[in-house]
Amino acid sequence: MTPKAGLVAVLGKILLTAMYGIPILWIVLTSFKASGDVFDPSRTFLFRPVTTAYVEAMDATLFQALGQSVIIASCTAILVLLIAIPAAYGLARTRGWLPTVGLGLLIVLQMMPQTATVIPLFQTFSGWRLLDTTASVILADTALLTPFATLLLRPFFRAVPPQLEEAASIDGAGMLRTFASVVLPVARNGVATVGTLTFLLAWGEFLYAVNFYLTPGKYPLSALLAQQVSAFGINWPGLMALAVLTSIPILIVFSASYRLLRDGLTVGAVK
User: Fold this and answer.
1) What pLDDT, in 10s, does the model give residues 213-223?
2) Phi, psi of 163 (to 5 degrees)
C-alpha cells in the first residue's frame, strides 16, 4: 500500500468512526442521564449517571416485544431459506434466457419500495383474516427478503463444481439426494451467511409491524421503540435506554456470526 493510499484509508476509518461512533456514544450517554441533563451543554460528558431509565424500561412489555421479534426474525429466516435455496440453485444451474429473465425480475422486486406493498398486502391479509397476527408480518417479511436472499445465494451455488454432481449421479444418486448430500454441504457457508443476514434484517423491520399489527401490545421491539415518541413529548433517557437494550440481542448475533458474514460476503462478491 502506498503512503497516499494509507492516508486515504486512515481518513476513511476516522470518518466512518465519527459517523457511526458519535451517535452510538450519544445514545449510551443519554441513557444514563436524568431528563434535565440531556440537552444541558455543560453536562454532555460530565454528569451524574443514573440507571432509572433502564429500570423503568425493563418491564413485561419489553420481554413480550423481545419474544415477538425473535419469532418474526427466526420464522422469516427459515421461510426465506426454504424458498431462496432451491430458487438460487435453479438459477445457478439453468442455462439460456430463463435465468436472465428470472434475475431481472428479482432485481425489479428488490428495487420495489416497501411502502408500495403495504396497502396491497393489508387488503390481502384482511381477506385472509391474518391482520393483527404474527403470521402476516412473517409472510410480508418473507416476500420482501426472498429476492435479496436468492440473488445473494446464487453465486455460492455457481461456485459448486458441476463435476461433483456428475460424480454423484454416476454413483446412482438422484437429483434430490445429490442436492442434499453434495451441493448443500459445499454451499453451507453461503446458506448460513444469507440466513444470518435475513435474521438481522427481519429483526429491524418496522413498517409491516406497525401496519399489520392492529393491537399495539403485540408490537416487536422495532415498533416498541417508535411507541416511545408521542405528541406529548419524548422521554429521551427512556428511549435511549430502550434502544440500548433492544440492540443487545442483535449485537450478540452479529458478534457470533461476524467471521462467517465477513468471509461469506467476500466469497459471494468475487464468484
Assistant:
1) 988 888 898 88
2) -60, -30
